[in-house]
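Data deposition worksheet. Section B asks for the primary sequence of the deposited chain exactly as it was used as input, without tags or linkers unless they were present during the calculation. Section C holds the resulting structure in token form. Section D is free text for depositor observations; keep each observation to a single sentence. Incomplete worksheets are returned to the depositor.
Section A, Depositor: J.P.
Section B:
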Amino acid sequence: MQIKRNNSLEPISISNWRWAYFLDETINAFSIFQPRPYPIENDFLFRESFFGSSSNPKKVVLETWGLKTKKIRQARCACLQADENTSVMNLVISPFNYFDLPFFGADFVTLPNGHLIALDLQPALKDDMIHTQYVSGKLKSIHENWQSKLPLGGDIPSQARKYFSQGFLWSRIPLGTEGDKLISKVIKPAFDDYLNLFLDLVTKAKRISPERSLKVLTGQKKYMQYRAEKDPARGMLRGFFGNLWTESYINNILFDLQ
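Section C:
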């Protein structure tokens, strides 16, 4: 049964969604910035489907939360729950290009074989010291503290490295009691530290020159294009919701700065 959400700022309704704490923290943090709904069509605010055998169908629900503020062009979160085995939070916060700010990105994914954790303040211009130096200095100690308490996530493809900062928190953790403890004791406070740093940067950000804004915009578009082309959730979303809906969702909602 379809659940009506009138706009992207309304609470999501997925019961027992594993990653609810992190979206709640984001919503609470942004409440001081007078957020407005980010325009998202009804077909992407809520989507429901079924998979598995006809004799034992399993439900998948996807809801999209979003906002915008004076300095944030788009903050959006894709929230997915498929039966009990798959739970996804894909959160990206995109500042307007007339501020020298990074993206905030959090990908938290539960699959039958474990949890994937990715958390970063991702640069639009990685090789630009003006863009990265202040952020890197602040982020380094936060990253070192929390990454030391987590197993590593494995190698990062060389093509992807230019889209992550040196403070990229990346881990694969097991299901069960051990993983739940790591999420509670490490991932939650790490997320809060990354988010608080990002919000501090947003609060202090001043408008930059039109010339530099164009440079930042070029970097932001390259980042969005890469994310849209390489989105690892594409296959899963196609399986649940079909090709046409998935491509429209990825290109027009998740990574819509073209």
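Section D:
Residues 229 and 251 are 9 Å apart (CA to CA).
The chain has seven helices and eight strands.
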